[in-house]
Amino acid sequence: MDARRISPGPPLLMLFCCGQLLPGLRTEGDQSQELYNETMAQSLLDFHERTAQIVWNQFTEATWNYVTNITNKNLEEMLHKDTQRSEHMLFFGTRARLFKNTRFQDPAVKRMLSKLQNIGKAALPKDKLREYDRLLASMKTTYNTAQVCLNEGPCLPLEPDLEEVMATSRDQKELLWAWQGWRDAVGRTLRDIFERYVWLSNEAARLNGYKDMGALWRCIYESDTLEQDLEQLFQELQPLYLNLHTYVRRALYRHYGPEVIDVKGPIPAHLLGNMWAQSWVKILDLVLPFPSKPPEDMTKIMQSQNWKPEKMFMEAETFINSLGLLPTPPDFWKNSMMERPTDGRDVECYASAWDFFNSKDFRIKKCTEVTIEDMLSILHQMGHIQYFLQYKNLPVIFRKGANPAFAEAVGSVITLSASSHKHLLHRGLLSHQHQDSEEELNFLMRIALDKVPFIPFAYLVDLYRWKVFDGTIQKNTYNLEWWNLRLKYQGLCPPIPRTEDDFDPGAKYHISANEPYVRDALKVGSSKPWPEVLQKITGQTNVSAKALMTYFKPLLNWLVSENVRQGEILGWPDFSCTFEEKDTDKVTFLSLKLSRKQAKFGQWVLLAQSFVMFLVALLLACRLHSMATKSLAQDTSRQNTTSSQNSSKLTPPPNAYFLGIAMEPSQVAKRQWMLLGLCLVGILCSISLAIWIITQHKRKPLWMRAEW
Question: Rounded mean pLDDT of the chain?
Answer without folding.
Answer: 82
